[in-house]
Amino acid sequence: MRFDDFRRSDNIDDRRDQEGGGGGGGGGFPMGGGGLGIGTIVVLGIVGWALGIDPRLLISGAEMISETTQHHQADSRPSKQGAPTDEVGSMISGVLGEIDDRWTEIFKANGQTYVGPKIVLFRGRTNGGRCGMAQAAMGPFYCPPDRQIYIDTSFFKQVETRFRGCSGSACQFTAAYIIAHEAGHHVQNLLGILPKVTRAQEAAGSRAEANALQVRVELQADCLSGVWVNREKKKRPNFLEDGDIDAALTTAAAIGDDTLQRRAGRDVVPDSFTHGSAEQRKRWFMTGYQQGTVQACNTFAAEKL
């Protein structure tokens, strides 16, 4: 991915020097307003499925509560606002700037106004605002009430080394795909999709029904990330390099629910999916990438995911 000429966004809250961040509680998918994360189940899901524990319980346990005071003290150190100058931070800032510009164009064409999300960069853990604790183990996630994306940048390295979701320079585009996925949740929030889904999940008659709704949310975000790539390629025809799209598809497969369950040594249980299978995630990203419209991403009307 060529990103040297990307517009750098200064809508970044860089807490990476805070060494552990702040307290809180919560996490998981948005039952009642929690965070939405492409990586939430990557680590905690493996442990949860292996032990038969709801992954959200691993995020919101008593240990977090007992550490709140300590973390708030660490969080009192000032963060850095604006576009970072290090390589990873600059790449993230550039991707966010381009995401904001392309979605601004899309919203404007439909008579709407787009205001982009803020990205919070951290190491280890930090205060996740109204979505509670943000921890590295949760992976990147979007907090709907605060309209912020939380990213521990070490996750990108985990995708490459632990989950083999990419390799070499193509991992930069994988990072962009992940950020664009979280920005897709922001688009869903602005369009009123997330609040409707949250209400439907609260009224669901079973966990399987609530999970099925969440899968449609996540697959739509994958599709919306593909829409951004489509629009960015039209704006900057040379920004993609050989292997970039393949890297995104490899990452999507590596963090598919069925892949994670097999890696944990368990049977594949579709009713427990919250993000979609490897094949579904790849297909919906490609749908957005090939068609380039929000309308193509209506997973809620799709008979087949």
Automatic annotation (TrEMBL):
<dbReference type="Pfam" id="PF04228">
    <property type="entry name" value="Zn_peptidase"/>
</dbReference>
<feature type="region of interest" description="Disordered">
    <location>
        <begin position="1"/>
        <end position="28"/>
    </location>
</feature>
<protein>
    <submittedName>
        <fullName>Zinc metallopeptidase</fullName>
    </submittedName>
</protein>
<feature type="transmembrane region" description="Helical">
    <location>
        <begin position="31"/>
        <end position="51"/>
    </location>
</feature>
<keyword id="KW-1133">Transmembrane helix</keyword>
<dbReference type="InterPro" id="IPR007343">
    <property type="entry name" value="Uncharacterised_pept_Zn_put"/>
</dbReference>
<keyword id="KW-0472">Membrane</keyword>
<dbReference type="GO" id="GO:0016020">
    <property type="term" value="C:membrane"/>
</dbReference>
<feature type="compositionally biased region" description="Basic and acidic residues">
    <location>
        <begin position="1"/>
        <end position="19"/>
    </location>
</feature>
<keyword id="KW-0812">Transmembrane</keyword>
